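Entry:
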Amino acid sequence: GDGSASPKNSGKDSLAPAKSGATSVPLLSRLGDKPSEQAAWNKFVDRYRPRIYTQCLAFPLQPFDAEDVTQSVLLKLVAKLPEFHYDPAQSFRGWLRKSHDGWFRQP
């Protein structure tokens, strides 16, 4: 990956960071409504990219391939996030994992 989807947000951000293990409901809502909003996307990438990359390595993929797949997963999530509806009884990370596990298996 070229890292173009994850520049650091240097401006004021109205999305309060959630605890590292908690799902950021306002962030997911904002991305569902406006998936191209750069500030929300940057925060999402900062938060979830390391988890996706770690799962790629566990698949197992080599680090270079894991970077490429991570970038592909993030790009696909732009289209998938509007379909996600937060349910406190469910895990966003579980949905995320299920979403991109299937992408590994597609021909």
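The mean pLDDT is 74.
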